[in-house]
TrEMBL record:
It comes from Chitinophaga filiformis (Myxococcus filiformis). Coiled coil: none annotated. Keywords: Cell outer membrane, Membrane, Receptor. Gene3D superfamilies: 3.55.50.30, Carboxypeptidase-like, regulatory domain (2.60.40.1120), TonB-dependent receptor, beta-barrel domain (2.40.170.20), TonB-dependent receptor, plug domain (2.170.130.10). It comes from the Bacteria. InterPro entries: Beta-barrel_TonB_sf, CarboxyPept-like_regulatory, Plug_dom, Plug_dom_sf. Pfam families: CarbopepD_reg_2 (PF13715), Plug (PF07715). It is found in: Cell outer membrane. Residues 218-304 form the TonB-dependent receptor plug domain. This is TonB-dependent receptor.
């Protein structure tokens, strides 16, 4: 019989046997594991299957998704786990028969500074600052500033930017002052593909309805008429069109040009095109970057309904002088930048001037042969200046200015002066001069309050003006009943802005932006002077509407950019504003929300909702789009416009982002939009009681946009298609029935292609097609009773038209091909290039305007079409030094 001691020993052994069986490993157990580009989780699975080592962890706390390559052979378990987990700050400990994984807790510090070009000191917008160990990062703001909070034992950061060599930033302990991170350009090096999975995710997380264009992106755009124009590139995107042929401006998702907020270094620009829309007012040589939003507007932007174009100018080289100059058949330009005091103060100045005067001197005003004296004389010019001064590592000052102007002179003659052959009974001589343009000035101060808090204080001035003068001399050859008329008209809008913007980054995945501002709007909607003398009648001298009105706008905003998880990003905010004009007070609270979610296999789902309010209105005739359009404020009769827009989208990227595809659907409603009750001339609508001539109603636009893009390689480009509807409804217009809006385009196709041929040649082409625009036409006409207009030939009775439904008809479909070829050759000290281009390559006569013509012989009237932009060849020679 077994003794008591023996029975106790046997029981103890039986109890311990399972423990020993399940604990067949210790820290000295030698293990082998080999994986290539596999998640950390795979290593845990291998160790569990081969050695019975169980791992316990929470997926919400410990991320085992990073890809690693490991080759460990016959090493102690503890040493092997240190090599595997230490780079990712993962702590491991044995509890019972399993290993528990947690993140190490570290004291943190905030690293802040600026990313800039190594050679010039130019700040780089949107550069990525990233910690590979913590797998967190951030991007620089529009001043090149970044802030990133990390564990105190972080050794270095990876810094990258498109077109530059990636760099590393060593992290010093207790770093408090802003640091400078210089990156070297790699324009001459092959493309570098960044394989880091998180960086790819950050790139794929572009907000819905947003496009960012760097200077490198703009240089890769087609160079039509010798320039890679940024606004032309934006106009080639789905959901965006360039308005009427020769009209300029942008029409975004059924909106009008006045509903676009265009900022030049934070200063609003009211007219964005030169020369019938051929050029934009932004010289590409001085533009550094641009952000374009057609939806999902961040809360920091306000005052417009349809889009935002935020343009940043170059700061100027802090170290040495550089310049560019070019001359072509249409325009010439030059740019110079350099230090005023090296490392402290820099400048950049640019200028352009067209010389189309001779090329368009014989412009056909009616599409028919004219007398030699029937001429059009047109030109534009613009100039930019910017000065950048560094007071300290925490304080910088920017001063910039812009001036630009267009002028058009038209001379038109009917009949022949002194005709004695009896072929004409009168002569009429008219001369008109149109001038319009922008003036702006900007003063900005940047201050770093702390590594986490950045401030930008801005004061701006912006004015848009339009004026016209005309002379009309009518003289019947057989009578003394002459008419000599002179007229002058002037209008303008001026904005004076002061605002403060702050950016606070408490954590790498959290950015809070907030600010406030005040805007003084000064409206001068039209001062007119008319004089009429001749025929023995007393002279007529009339001046009216000689006055201006002022509106005061106050704004507040706050927005929060939050990366809620590895897959979910949210931007939520609110923009609040008020408007005081002529004793009337309006206010608005505008919520904004945008989100995107990363799906497997590089699919991204995005959605947004925005509420926008606009206190300014643009009075425009429904049949033309010209500089004569009038800016006016909201009044007691005309309330501010506001819109609500919802959009959803999905995007897909191929491996290494070679190809991308995106699809967006949107629905937008607009309230308190205005329209003339009946078509009027821009001058007769300029009275102080303009708000009695307009109807107030609602608008609606909706549609879908798809875009396929190739982003890398020697062949790049995109093709976009838009299917859209846009309509308006006014109680007193068109019988209260909805009608297509002026910019309603059912189908729109845009294709852009660039092709590199070797190191020196680049070919590019853009083709666009759009269905016709809505048009209102008379359905019947008859001769009235009474005197004809003094501007009509004698013997004519006035013709009265019966106008049918508003915008019932459509113009012809419009399409155009633009092509260019650029040859570049680098010399020792400078680079030269030749650009050969064709605007409207196959000479498509797209309509600019329509008018009714009466054929007295056939006793009929017909619709005539005017085209003003035929094929325009151009050769441009440029140098860069």
């Amino acid at each position: 019989m077994m003794s008591l001691f023996g029975r106790m020993l046997l029981g103890t052994l039986l109890i311990c046997i399972p423990v020993l069986a399940s604990s067949g490993w210790d820290w000295r157990t030698r293990v082998s594991v080999a994986v290539k580009d596999q998640p950390l989780e795979t290593i845990c699975i291998i160790l569990e299957k081969q050695y019975g080592i169980h791992f316990s962890y929470s997926k919400n706390v410990v991320d085992l998704s990073p890809l690693v390559t490991v080759n460990i052979h016959n090493r102690p378990l503890k040493k092997a786990l240190e090599d595997i987990f230490e780079p990712f700050d993962i702590h491991f400990a044995r509890i019972g028969d399993q290993i528990v994984l947690t993140f190490k807790k570290h004291p943190t510090q905030t690293i802040s500074g600026y990313v800039q070009d190594y050679t010039t000191g130019e700040k780089l917008i949107g550069a990525t600052v990233y910690s590979p160990v913590q797998r967190v990062g951030t991007t620089t703001n529009q001043f090149g500033f970044f802030s990133l909070t990390l564990p105190r034992d972080t050794i270095s950061l990876l810094v990258s930017y498109i077109g530059y060599k990636p760099g590393r930033l060593p992290v010093r302990k207790s770093q408090t002052d802003p640091v400078i991170v210089p990156l070297q350009s790699q324009n001459s090096l092959p493309e570098v593909v960044i394989l880091t999975d998180t960086l790819r995710q950050q790139q794929e997380q572009a907000p819905l309805s947003k496009l960012n264009m760097s200077q490198a992106d703009m240089k890769a755009m087609p160079r039509l008429l010798g320039e890679a124009d940024m606004m032309r590139a934006i106009g080639a995107l789905p959901g965006v069109s360039g308005g009427l042929e020769g009209g300029g401006g942008l029409n975004v998702r059924g909106g009008s040009p006045d509903q676009n907020l265009v900022l030049l270094d934070g200063t609003p620009i009211f007219s964005v095109s030169h020369l019938f829309g051929i050029f934009s007012v932004f010289n590409p040589d001085i533009v550094k970057s641009a952000d374009f939003y057609k939806g999902a507007f961040p809360a920091r932007y306000g005052g417009r309904l349809s889009s935002v174009v935020d343009i940043a100018l170059k700061d100027g080289d802090m170290q040495q002088y550089h310049g560019e100059a070019a001359i072509g058949l249409i325009a010439a330009k030059a740019m110079v930048e350099g230090p005023i005091k090296k490392g402290k103060t820099s400048f950049v100045v640019s200028g352009r001037r067209s010389h189309l005067d001779a090329l368009l001197n014989d412009l056909k005003l009616n599409g028919e042969a004219e007398e030699p004296d029937n001429k059009a004389y047109v030109y534009f010019y613009d100039a930019n200046l910017k000065v950048n001064h560094i007071f300290s590592e925490k304080d910088r000052l920017y001063l910039s200015g812009y001036v630009g102007q267009d002028m058009l002179k038209v001379t038109y003659r009917e009949g022949r002066k002194g005709d004695t052959a009896g072929t004409s009974t009168y002569y009429a001589d008219s001369r008109s001069r149109f001038v319009w343009g922008n003036y702006t000035g900007t003063l900005r101060w940047n201050h770093v309050f702390s590594p986490k808090l950045f401030a930008n204080i801005t004061s701006t001035y912006s004015q848009y003006h339009f004026s016209t003068e005309y002379n009309y001399d009518y003289n019947p050859l057989n009578t003394a009943d002459t008419s000599i008329a002179y007229g002058k008209y002037y209008s303008s809008i001026t904005d004076i802005v002061g605002r403060a913007d702050f950016e606070y980054r408490p954590k790498p995945n959290h950015t809070i932006k907030f600010g406030a501002g005040a805007i003084t709007h000064i409206f001068n909607p039209g001062v007119s002077l008319f004089e009429d003398a001749g025929g023995g009648q007393p002279a007529l001298d009339t001046t009216y509407n000689d006055g201006a009105s002022t509106g005061q706008e106050i704004l507040l905003y706050a927005e929060d950019e939050w990366k809620a998880s590895q897959s979910l990003w949210i931007n939520a905010g609110v923009h609040a504003s008020s408007f005081l004009v002529d004793g009337r007070f309006y206010h608005s609270v505008q919520p904004r929300l945008g989100a995107r979610y990363l799906l497997p296999h590089k699919w991204v789902v995005k959605a947004s909702y925005t509420h926008m309010t606009q206190y300014l209105h643009l009075l425009t005739n429904s049949t033309i789009n010209s500089p004569t359009d009038l800016w006016v404020p909201s009044t007691g009769k005309v309330q501010p416009m506001f819109s609500r827009q919802g959009s959803v989208g999905i995007a897909k990227s191929s491996r290494h982002r070679m190809y991308t595809m995106s699809l967006e659907l949107y629905y937008k409603t607009m309230d308190h939009v205005i329209e003339y009750n009946e078509p009027v001339s821009p001058f007769s609508g300029a009275g102080t009681h303009w708000d009695e001539l307009v109807a107030i109603g609602k608008g609606r636009s909706y549609g879908g946009e798809i875009m396929l893009e190739k982003k890398k390689g020697t062949t790049r480009g995109w093709i976009g298609y838009t299917l859209a509807w846009s309509n308006r409804t006014f109680p007193t217009v068109n019988g209260g029935k909805p009608f297509p809006y002026k910019y309603d385009r059912r189908h729109d196709i845009e294709a852009v292609l660039t092709q590199r041929l070797g190191k020196r040649w680049e070919l590019s082409a853009t083709w666009e097609f759009t269905t016709g625009l809505p048009l209102t036409l008379p359905t019947a006409s008859f001769e009235g009773i009474g005197d004809a207009s003094p501007f009509d030939p004698p013997g004519k009775d006035p013709i009265i038209d019966h106008i049918g439904d508003r915008n019932k008809y459509r113009t012809s479909s419009m399409h155009r091909l633009d092509i260019s070829a650029t040859y570049s050759k680098k010399k020792k000290l400078w680079t030269k290039s030749w650009t050969f281009s064709l605007y409207n390559a196959y000479n498509q006569r797209n309509p600019y305007s329509y008018y009714m013509v009466t054929d007295t012989e056939k006793q009929e009237r017909y619709l005539a079409e005017v085209s003003i932009l035929p094929i325009l060849p151009s050769v441009t020679y440029a140098i860069k030094f």
